[in-house]
Design a protein that fits this description.
The protein is mainly β. The protein contains 2 helices and 37 strands. 7% of the residues lie in helices and 38% in strands. The relative contact order is 0.08.
Length: 381
Amino acid sequence: MPSTPIQSEGFFMTRSASQRYYVARLALILAMVFVTSVGLVRPALAHGGTTFVRQGQSIQAAIDAARPGDRIVVGRGTYAEQLTVSEDGIELVGLGAILVPPSSPVVNLCSGLAGPDTEAGICVTGADVVLAPFVGVEHRKVVSVGRRVENVSIAGFNLRGFSGENVAVVGAQDARVIGNRLTDGARYGLLTVGSTNTRAFANIVGTSTTLPFIGICADDVAGTVVSRNHISGYNIAICVQTPGEAVLNNDVSASCTGVFVDPGIDGAKIRDNHIKGTNPRCRDENAPFFVVLGIELSGAVNTEVRRNRVQGQTAGGLPNGFAAGLVVVDDSTTGAVPSGNVVTQNTLINNDLDLFVRTAGTGNVIKHNKCTTSDPAGLCG
């Protein structure tokens, strides 16, 4: 390409293309702020006002002074803050605003959400939220929510390098995370947990340094839609932990697993996503075994996987690696078996193995997929 890529192993975009994308994204954000779109951006609550924050001023102070339905527009500049939003109807709009960690962390509900000593850049939280203890390697679960914070939207920010999540949505209803650039989130780019009807739309989630855990993860109650996001450089680009979650038209690159549907998750819809390339960091010649996967259904049930394009999932010829475009398998940890899943009309090309199905489950339909290799043989249409 004639111009230098922004990241060598992350989101492959030339500098001129990145600038064009930023201008288009800014126009989209402004349109979404001032025009209501059914199902994506809710109407502002009645009598909402607008507050402008400039570099050197405090975004959190504006949030604390806001009333339900207010819009807070943050101008160009770098702001070393962690933000907490717990009031209904708040719209946070960044116009060239960069949010980075402060010198001293601010303790809020999201502190420790992704494990000990982790913090979120923006924490959207309901009232009287009870979290389970941190177990394993993921995040704390929501036990109960006293009152959900409603209709909060976060749009147009550039969040960089927070130790837990760049954005966390906990115990919310109808939250919108739209058109943000979430860079180098050490654990998650975006985590939404214990919420309902969250929308994650047109965000750029990526990293240029290490291989963080998950780009976007939804462990919600119901109604989550993850659509038209660009995700790169994560161990897992998109994790699906919400029943009925819709993962639509996302672009994933340079990740170890593109989309992972968790054991027992019922009724997810994985449609029209493009998953391409393998991050070299996913290949570990010193590991006993490693995997590179485009889409994985691990004990998931009644999932629709349709019209996705998966390409370039490869172990690089290393004998201790396994790579496949799309897999349907029993979950080795929980013992959950996939059943009732429909995998159809997907295009799988240039993968070490296109389709891999190993399950004791029943009712899985694998048909009309464009591919060349499968295990067992005969699955390619």
